[in-house]
Structure formats: C-alpha cells, structure tokens
Specification:
single chain; 88 residues; alpha+beta; q64v53_bacfr protein fold; five-stranded antiparallel beta sheet; 19% helix; 41% strand
C-alpha cells in the first residue's frame, strides 16, 4: 500500500536579534508522467523567495526526501508557521 502524500508544510524561523525572518515551504505534487515532484520554496518573509522542484521516480522517494528536509529544518530552528517559536 503506498504511503499517503504529506500535507503541504509551511515553516518559518524568526530571530529578531539577528534580523532573521525566513520561511521554508514543502509540498509534493504528482507529474503527468506518473512521477512525484517535491516542491521547495524558501526565502525572507515578505518576498517571493526561490523555488526548487525535484522529481522522483516514485512517491516513496519523494516522501522520504520531504520528511528528511522537514527534520533538518526543524533541527535548525524552523517551526510550523501557525506555532509560535520557542525563542520568542
């Protein structure tokens, strides 16, 4: 049974002392050719930022990459956008 697609994730990292206002968004989307794309958006809050699209042969690979990136960003201090960061 295939893993369900994760919901889009919106993270942000705010540190007023360092003038840091960053966002990071992850989402998955199927392609027309049966593959799965991982879409990453990041940048300074208030800007359009940058976008990167990675295409994987299967959904399991895309989901693994999604989870790996989510964990890495949360280790670096990013928090889910609707939660207040612990350092504020």
């Amino acid at each position: 049974m295939p893993k369900p697609e994760p919901e889009p994730l919106h993270l942000r990292r705010i540190d007023a002392a360092r003038n840091m206002l960053r966002f990071y968004a992850l989402s998955t989307q199927p392609t027309l050719f049966g593959e799965m794309s991982l879409i990453r958006d990041w940048g300074r809050i208030g800007t359009s930022g940058k976008t990167m699209v990675q295409t994987f042969g299967g959904s399991a690979e895309a989901i693994e990459a999604f989870v790996r990136l989510e964990r890495a960003k949360q280790r670096r201090g990013y928090a889910v956008a609707d939660q207040k960061p612990s350092y504020l």
